[in-house]
Amino acid sequence: MPLLGEPVVTVFLRSFLILLFVAAALPKLRHGDEFFGVMRNFRLMPEAMARPFAAALPLVELALAAGLAVPATAAASAAGLGGLLVVFGLAIAINVVRGRTAIDCGCFRNGMKQPLSWLLVGRNAGLALVAFGLAWILPAAPAAGPFDLAVGFAAAGLALLLGYGASLLNGLQAGARPSSIPKG
């Protein structure tokens, strides 16, 4: 059996995507007007569609994350999350090509701003591949036991915390860089 099909790995990937999308959706719901502004900044849809899209997107993210937790809907939900990640990556790529990198990606709120970049496009592409791979492997994957569930979920939480911590440290580092060299 391939490594991706191991129960502890599928639990890890499912848990990671669930936690990631819940962590991304909740701040969008709490700060709806700010997220609406982010959607408008992308300039990819008519103005009239931006507010309903901004209101619906976090609910779709939460629904797909919840679906990933249910074995009967997990594969379809993983494919749906992969599709969302592709759409997010394309939206970011279009704005990077346009030279509009100073706008916030809207991925995570609460004061953590992420300007658009090819790195974010790559991150979304990699996460989309994980989600699509999970959708493909889940129907044939064996059921997870209690040990698989505990280790997979704990590893996913740790991976998410490490990734979030690295992003915060990168933001601190970026804020500490001088914009110009002072003249003596």
Automatic annotation (TrEMBL):
Residues 9-136 form the Methylamine utilisation protein MauE domain. Signal peptide: none annotated. Pfam families: MauE. The keyword Transmembrane helix applies. Its main location: membrane. Pathway: One-carbon metabolism; methylamine degradation. InterPro entries: Methylamine_util_MauE. Keywords: Membrane, Transmembrane, Transmembrane helix. It is found in: Membrane. It is a multi-pass membrane protein. The keyword Cell cycle does not apply. The chain crosses the membrane at residues 12-29, 50-70, 76-97, 118-138, 150-169. May be specifically involved in the processing, transport, and/or maturation of the MADH beta-subunit. This is Methylamine utilization protein MauE. It comes from Methylorubrum aminovorans.
